[in-house]
Amino acid sequence: RAEGVTAVDVAGATGRYLEIGYDPHLLSAYGISSTDIAEAIRNFTGRADIIGDVRRDNPGGTPLRQTLYLASEPVPLAEIPLTTADGHTVYLNNLVTSRIRYWPPGHYYRLNGLNTVYLNISVPAGANLMSLSSRLQKEVAALAPGLREGVYLTLAHDAAAEERTEVFNLVTRSLLSVVILLLCVWLTRRNGRYLFIIAATLAADVLISVIVYYLIGLRLHIFSMAGITVSLSLIIDASIVMADHYSYHRNRKAFLAILAAMLTTIGALGTVFALPDGWQNDLYDFARIIIVNLSVSLLVAVLFVPALTERLRYDSRGTLPLRRARRIVRWDRFYRRYIALLHRHRPLGYALLVLAFGLPLFALPPRLGGKAAYNTTGEPQPWHERLYNSTLGSDFFRRYVKEPLEAPLGGSLRLFVESLDANRRDERDRKPLLHIRGQIPQGGTAEELNAKVVLVEDLLRNLRGIGRFTTEIDGNGARLDVEFSDSAALTSLPYLVENQVIARLIRIGGADWSTYGVSQMGFSNSLNLQHRSHRLMLTGYNFDRLSRYASDLCRYVARNPRVRDATVEVPGHRSGEKELYLDYDRT
Q1: Bigger pLDDT: 72 or 480?
Q2: Could you report the per-residue pLDDT of 421-445, keeping only the tens digit for each?
Q3: Is residue 123 a contact partner of residue 2, using CB atoms and an 8 Å limit?
Q4: Residue 51 has pLDDT above 50, yes or no
Q5: pTM score, two decimals?
Q6: SS3 65
Q7: How far apart are the C-alpha atoms of 186 and 190, rounded to whole Å?
Q8: What are the start-end ranges of the H helices in 1-150?
């Protein structure tokens, strides 16, 4: 019923069924069979998919039991008529007994060793996650006092947590950017009125831009808010240029230069709208928000800055102190000589600029078209591939030219490419995460494996430094993922926990165990008996006959004393349900 919620799903509970017991001799006295019971329940409930299973424990007079799947509520047996006897209606509860039972669990999922029922709340794609998440958490927390003892509410995943953190970081960075920009303005002029002009125009730019966001329906999210932070340094440039020019010349002729610079930036951002849809979805609002901020800064620079400068009577044409004037003259002389030197030696300047960016020698492929002189169709390689392989792809060039010059000629481009892969991992992925895997031998059940996993969970509950651990058990094995607290993740505690877990796993028999994620070596006591070094492949269209041929071939190969543990496998079904094959001794 909460506004903004599209669906609520509950998962993790064990299913139930109704077990009905009856005496077949009593039923035969009334002329009723088990089929009549199933038909009566089917007709009463209006369902046609009731599945009945008659099981006889022993040939004696023990009742036969028929299990029926139920949707939600038990069938009201007292209201189901079966037959009439001596003018009276005989109801189902007069002849049978029933009880609700739970299906044997084939899957376990626990959080910190406690059985878990998941409540998954879905919201629309365009919903305000932060406000909606906070409101729903308050409503769920209000249910906690009404829960019975032993039932706890835990927030396992909050989709808005990451967005909330990112927004906080973006706001913090934006405020720091404003402080740094205004500090630089103060250090360059050290004039209170000039600082007020720049701060007021920056505030006007942001506030007017917010109004435009609302009018054009622009969404504020992580990427668009990042655009605000990026555009702060761009919009303050227009205010500084116009304030300096107008305070000295008392005209708006600098507007054309500001307009040209802004249009160049806006034109560069226009390439975002030509990107593929996957990238454009993230950068669309980012580009729009910068374009809006730049457009607003133009209007503020040409209208608001001159008016504010006149109102405050700010004039930058005052006399300079002698010491400051000398510094300006010395800097002007140095800059003039620097420009003259570059003008006389322009080729050297261009070469230094290219080397600063970097030559992509490291990106050259070793060879073109592979090592063979002919391609896959039998034709000789094209001339350009042969030319490249004999020059830039030769062993001499790669060994004596490319490798020694990659670092000195790579410049900033090589450093950027190398750091791109090194910084791609998220900070959360760098935290140690202990993974424990268990596999019971073929023929075992999830209940048997669960009894062994409980021993590991008892150990994890008593170890310090663990944030939480999740357990998942099914027919394919057991998976335990242990997360550590922030204070313990950067210490040696994860390694101590792994050692204690390994010591416990060694004492738990009847299963193959392995650990990884903390230490490089990890642990495994599996003998890997499923691995086969050689295979013979049989193909055909009749599976039963092909299976018999494979079995005969397996027995024939097994006669060789060098063959050990031969078996028959179905390719492509290794992760499917396993089968037990019974081979009878007919002698």
Answers
A1: 480
A2: 554 544 445 678 999 999 887 777 8
A3: no
A4: no
A5: 0.54
A6: strand
A7: 5
A8: 24-29, 34-45, 129-141
